[in-house]
């Protein structure tokens, strides 16, 4: 994790080697909704295989930033690269041209996203949810998609729940199906937007365990979360955002133990 | 299960926490609320109905022998088939066009939005009868239909009367009017689908069209089907207005024409009503199965055997089990007789 934001105090962490391009590179990304400036010149990079936790108070722009990475939200300024590829635009000279919807959709296939409210398709069973995009987006043969879907549901511990509709699954089970659904597209990057915030406390662990396994398998992950235990144990880097700017970045253990910035201190004292 | 209140003694002992009481009297018994008045009212209604039927069967004005004679008369059954065809064809066009209009109204494209809005303004804002008369006059307003580039020699040209018979005009008239109403029904259905669904589908790399087709529209069906069933039944009856085109081979116009010959309108009205009711009943059965099909995965679906196991874990605590009994240790199974 190398931080190139001018706004943040230099807490430079084990920088990635220059030869390998980062998985995510944000250059002065800004985003406004009307006159409300939600992201103010965010610059950061996430190396391949890195797990980054993004924390910050409500309304600080964490979800918006994740959605920009996936081009669900169009940035107003700056540039975002995923695996060296400009997100949502093609650049010719000094001008950015917005991508055709088809091309933007193709970019999103490479990026998995997990939502706070699961957003499973309620009219499909767990397995159908998982194989939907492989079959209809990736055009995989059905038999192959089913075999892979079963394998993924097995991996998230839902072997016996494949034929169930989301309404008949617990929150933790639904979120694990949602993770399997995202993984079925073989993404190179996974985005998690508060994946455990809508869960009953006793169900949080099962989802975090799945995410931990995923991190250990080498997946690049950006996780918005309030689970500081997860951040400390699993994440390689921690980014604290407030008011649309990156306030502090560094090694999770160090930031949590010894926050440099007053706003980080105040926030951590509330969530720890 | 709000109508099943416990009435057994240990529970009814008022505000005092009856821990001891229930402990001493063993398992709790829950008796369902009885509804004696329902039965009384039902009996009264049945008596009136029987009296009415007995009376009607003897009244000469209904002329039941004529009803029996004409109900399967070839002219009548052909007319019934025509009415059914008018209904089915115009509804198929109306639903298709309605979906297109609804999607256009919800699209971010201002041109599509305005076109759809204008369509609704015109076709909802004028009576269907007036529209049907207009379609009937189409051949007078536009004597020929030309296909080609404006102001140039047309590639093809048809006489309007030859290209469009009155049946086709009736279908067009009914369909275009109905599409405006269907568009609003479909729009309500599409808007009822959670935004997160579209977002999840988009994040998986689906195109907008795939998202609509695979995720949003199937879910909106649950909301769309009941009012659409309503519209189909309404359309079946609206076909009686096609005489405005004028198309005169539908059920109502045909039976009226026959009664003009026989000077006996009442049995012909009964004949038409019986046919309308017959079709309506079939449509209602169809609607039932469609609703079941699109209710997949929704909470009110009864859990299957294997899924009942998870009831005990509290996951499905709001879903009653298939006997409709309370999830209490022992519920009075015989209390279900009132439903
Ligand atoms: N589609 C939108 N239109 C207008 N304003 C928006 C939109 N989405 C987000 N915002 C605003 O952007 C700001 C940041 O929102 P965002 O959801 O990114 O915050 P967050 O850090 O994820 O907060 P939380 O922890 O509550 O999820 C908020 O003030 C919010 O009101
Ligand atoms: Mg958020």
TrEMBL record, chain A:
Q: Which reaction does it catalyse?
A: a polar amino acid(out) + ATP + H2O = a polar amino acid(in) + ADP + phosphate + H(+)
Is Transport a UniProt keyword of this protein?
Answer: yes
Q: What is its EC number?
A: 7.4.2.1
Q: Which SMART domains match?
A: AAA
**In which organism is this protein found?**
Alpinimonas psychrophila
InterPro entries, alphabetically? AAA+_ATPase, ABC_ATPase_HisP-typ, ABC_transporter-like_ATP-bd, ABC_transporter-like_CS, MetN_ABC_transporter-like, P-loop_NTPase
**PROSITE patterns to which the protein is assigned, alphabetical:** ABC_TRANSPORTER_1, ABC_TRANSPORTER_2
Q: Which residues form a coiled coil?
A: none
Task: Report the GO molecular function annotations.
Answer: ATP binding; ATP hydrolysis activity; ATPase-coupled polar amino acid-transporter activity
Its name, as the record gives it, is ABC-type polar-amino-acid transporter
Keyword Ion transport appears in the UniProt entry: no
Q: Which UniProt keywords apply?
A: ATP-binding, Nucleotide-binding, Transport
Similarity comment: family membership: Belongs to the ABC transporter superfamily.
Q: What's a Pfam family this protein contains?
A: ABC_tran
From TrEMBL, chain B:
Any one of the GO CC terms: ATP-binding cassette (ABC) transporter complex
Segments of this protein annotated with the region Disordered: 1-23, 320-339
Which InterPro entries does UniProt cross-reference here?
A: AA_ABC_transptr_permease_3TM, ArtM/GltK/GlnP/TcyL/YhdX-like, MetI-like, MetI-like_sf
What subcellular compartments does it reside in?
Cell membrane
Q: Name one GO biological process term.
A: amino acid transport
Parts of the chain that traverse the membrane: 37-54, 86-106, 118-142, 162-181, 269-290
Positions with biased composition (Low complexity): 14-23
The membrane topology noted for this protein in its Swiss-Prot or TrEMBL record is: Multi-pass membrane protein
CDD domains, A to Z? TM_PBP2
Please provide, alphabetically and separated by semicolons, the GO molecular function terms listed in this UniProt record.
Answer: transmembrane transporter activity
Please provide the record's keywords in A-Z order.
Amino-acid transport, Cell membrane, Membrane, Transmembrane, Transmembrane helix, Transport
Protein origin, superkingdom: Bacteria
Q: Looking at the keywords, is Repeat present?
A: no
Task: Tell me, in one coarse class, where this protein mainly resides.
Answer: membrane
UniProt domain ABC transmembrane type-1: residue ranges: 80-287
By sequence similarity, the record places it as follows: Belongs to the binding-protein-dependent transport system permease family.
Protein known as: Polar amino acid transport system permease protein
Lineage start = Bacteria, Bacillati, Actinomycetota, Actinomycetes, Micrococcales
């Amino acid at each position: 994790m190398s931080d190139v934001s001018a706004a943040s105090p230099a807490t430079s962490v084990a920088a990635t080697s220059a030869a390998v391009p980062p998985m995510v590179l944000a250059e002065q990304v800004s985003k406004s909704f009307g006159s409300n400036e939600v992201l103010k010149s965010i610059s950061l990079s996430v190396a391949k295989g890195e797990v980054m936790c993004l924390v910050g108070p409500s309304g600080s722009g964490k979800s918006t930033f994740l959605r920009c990475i996936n081009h669900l939200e169009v940035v107003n300024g700056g540039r975002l690269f995923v695996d060296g590829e400009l997100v949502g635009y093609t650049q010719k000279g000094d001008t950015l041209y917005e991508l055709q919807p088809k091309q933007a959709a193709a970019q999103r296939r490479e990026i998995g996203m997990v939502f706070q409210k699961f957003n499973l398709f309620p009219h499909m069973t767990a397995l159908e949810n998982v194989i939907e995009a492989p079959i209809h987006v990736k055009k995989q043969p059905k038999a192959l998609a089913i075999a892979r879907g079963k394998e993924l549901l097995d991996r998230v511990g839902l072997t016996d729940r494949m034929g169930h509709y989301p309404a008949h699954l617990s929150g933790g089970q639904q979120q694990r199906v949602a993770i399997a659904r995202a993984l079925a597209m073989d993404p190179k990057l996974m985005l998690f937007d508060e994946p455990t915030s809508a869960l009953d406390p006793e169900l949080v662990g099962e989802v975090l365990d799945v995410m931990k396994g995923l991190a250990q398998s080498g997946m690049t992950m950006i996780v918005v979360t309030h689970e500081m235990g997860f951040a400390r144990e699993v994440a390689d880097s921690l980014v604290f955002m407030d008011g649309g700017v990156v306030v502090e970045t560094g090694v999770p253990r160090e930031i949590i133990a010894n926050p440099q910035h007053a706003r980080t201190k105040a926030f951590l004292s509330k969530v720890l | 299960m709000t109508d099943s209140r416990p009435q057994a003694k240990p529970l009814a002992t008022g505000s005092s926490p009856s821990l001891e009481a229930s402990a001493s009297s063993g398992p709790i018994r829950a008796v369902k609320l009885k509804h004696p008045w329902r039965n009384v009212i039902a009996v009264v209604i049945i008596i009136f109905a029987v009296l009415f039927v007995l009376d009607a069967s003897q009244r000469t004005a209904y002329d039941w022998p004529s009803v029996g004679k004409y109900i399967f008369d070839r002219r009548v059954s052909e007319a019934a088939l025509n009415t059914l065809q008018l209904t089915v064809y115009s509804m198929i066009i109306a639903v298709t066009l309605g979906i297109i209009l609804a999607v256009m109204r919800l699209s971010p494209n201002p041109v599509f939005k305005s076109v759809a809005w204008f369509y609704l303004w015109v076709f909802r804002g004028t009576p269907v009868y007036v529209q049907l008369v207009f379609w009937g006059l189409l051949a007078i307003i536009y004597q020929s239909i030309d296909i080609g580039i404006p102001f140039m020699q047309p590639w093809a040209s048809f006489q309007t009367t030859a290209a469009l018979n009155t049946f086709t005009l009736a279908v067009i008239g009914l369909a275009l009017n109905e599409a405006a109403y269907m568009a609003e029904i479909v729009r309500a259905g599409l808007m009822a689908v959670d935004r997160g669904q579209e977002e999840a589908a988009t994040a998986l790399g689906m195109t907008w069209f795939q998202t609509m087709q695979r995720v949003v529209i199937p879910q909106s069906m649950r909301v769309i089907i009941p009012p659409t069933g309503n519209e189909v039944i309404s359309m079946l009856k609206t076909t009686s207005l096609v005489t405005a085109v004028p198309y005169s081979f539908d059920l109502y116009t045909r039976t009226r024409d026959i009664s003009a010959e026989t000077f006996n309108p009442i049995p012909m009205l009964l004949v038409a009503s019986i046919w309308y009711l017959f079709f309506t009943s079939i449509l209602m059965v169809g609607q039932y199965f469609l609703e079941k099909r699109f209710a997949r995965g929704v909470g009110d679906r009864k859990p299957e055997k294997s899924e009942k196991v998870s009831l005990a874990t509290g996951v499905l605590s709001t879903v009653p089990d298939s006997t409709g009994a309370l999830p209490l240790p022992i519920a009075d199974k015989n209390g279900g007789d009132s439903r």
